[in-house]
């Protein structure tokens, strides 16, 4: 199963990226209700397990808690920082990057490129689409991420949160080196279906 909240999907289709806004109460209720109904239908059809995925802090995670499902595997994480209060980690090397003439904030070095979409007070990116690199180690990628935060602080002072969604080992290791923290874990959930 995978729940789809239409206003969020419409935003993705219009803007080209997922909405960074927190889910409204309506979305939480809708997702939990859909999974509850799916569990009833699957149980009646003699299925043994209902599976879905999503962030532990979002509607999918809340539905897992409400229905007593369990997370059986983490497949991605979201990391964030506030550019205004972020401090570059001690010992992080400097990696001058050039800014590319893109509609989003895009920075590049000889071996990597990063691009953040800015929407209101948030800058966000899907690392699978917005961080490109070749034979780059986490320690080499981290300074480019730090440069992005620095550019946000100086060029976009109204941005109060940078949010990065990742599912890649190199990026995952580079983000804490650049001073970002995990804000949510994306999990695969399983709900055992016992006969009613």
How would you characterize this protein structure?
This protein has about 200 residues and is α+β, with helices and mostly antiparallel strands. The chain is built from six helices and nine strands; from the N terminus they run H-H-E-H-E-E-E-E-E-H-E-H-E-H-E. The two termini are about 20 Å apart.
Walk me through the topology:
Layout: H1 6-15, H2 25-44, E1 49-55, H3 59-67, E2 70-81, E3 98-100, E4 105-108, E5 112-119, E6 122-126, H4 127-130, E7 131-133, H5 138-155, E8 161-166, H6 169-177, E9 181-192
Helix pairs in contact: 2-3, 5-6
Strand content: 25-35%
Helix count, per DSSP? 6
* Unreliable parts: none
Helix content: 25-40%
Radius of gyration: 19 Å
Compose a concise summary of this entry.
The protein has helices at residues 6-15, 25-44, 59-67, 127-130, 138-155, 169-177; strands at residues 49-55, 70-81, 98-100, 105-108, 112-119, 122-126, 131-133, 161-166, 181-192. It is an alpha+beta fold and 196 residues long.
Name some characteristics of this structure.
196 residues, 9 strands, alpha+beta, nine-stranded mixed sheet, 36% helix
């Amino acid at each position: 199963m995978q729940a789809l909240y239409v206003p969020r999907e419409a935003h993705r289709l219009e803007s080209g990226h997922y909405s960074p806004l927190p889910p409204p109460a309506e979305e939480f209720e809708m997702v939990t209700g859909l999974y509850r109904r799916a569990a009833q239908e699957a149980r009646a059809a003699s299925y043994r397990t209902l599976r879905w995925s999503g962030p532990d802090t979002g509607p999918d995670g809340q539905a897992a808690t409400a229905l007593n499902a369990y997370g059986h595997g983490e497949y991605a994480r979201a990391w964030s920082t506030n550019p205004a209060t972020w401090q570059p980690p001690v010992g992080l090397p400097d990696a001058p990057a050039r800014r590319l003439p893109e509609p989003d904030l895009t920075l590049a070095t000889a071996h990597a490129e990063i691009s953040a979409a800015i929407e209101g007070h948030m800058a966000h990116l899907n690392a699978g689409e917005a961080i490109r690199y070749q034979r780059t180690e986490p320690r080499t990628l981290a300074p480019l991420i730090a440069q992005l935060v620095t550019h946000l602080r100086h060029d976009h002072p109204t941005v109060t949160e940078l949010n990065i969604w990742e599912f890649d080992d190199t990026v995952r290791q580079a983000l804490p080196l650049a001073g970002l923290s995990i804000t949510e874990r994306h999990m695969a959930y399983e709900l055992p279906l016992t006969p009613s």
